[in-house]
Prior knowledge:
Layout: H1 2-16, E1 24-31, E2 34-41, H2 67-70, H3 75-85, E3 89-95, E4 99-107
Antiparallel strand pairs: 1-2, 2-4, 3-4
Helix pairs in contact: 1-3
Amino acid sequence: MRLRQILDNLVTNALRYVPSGGSVAVTARTEQDEVVFEVADNGTGISPEDLPHVFDRFWRAEKSRSRQTGGSGLGLAIVRNLAEAHGGSATAESTYGQGATFRVRLPA
């Protein structure tokens, strides 16, 4: 159930930032003793100065978004906390203007 919550939060977040006609890809693979889930999009991406904060509670890249227009700012914090609670990790990488990739690693 918590894995579904992680993926739902990542996919929902990716869909918010992908333009019409864009794409979101969800993949899973094993690497040694880990299962790696990735959600990658070709949306707006995340600026380098914002990237370190994406997993912070209540943080939003778009300051114009509010709870009514763009979520609570908790989705990615929940992803990180759930991953860590299961002995794993959550990371993000992005090239601004070209999309973002969120990666969750969990023990196999």
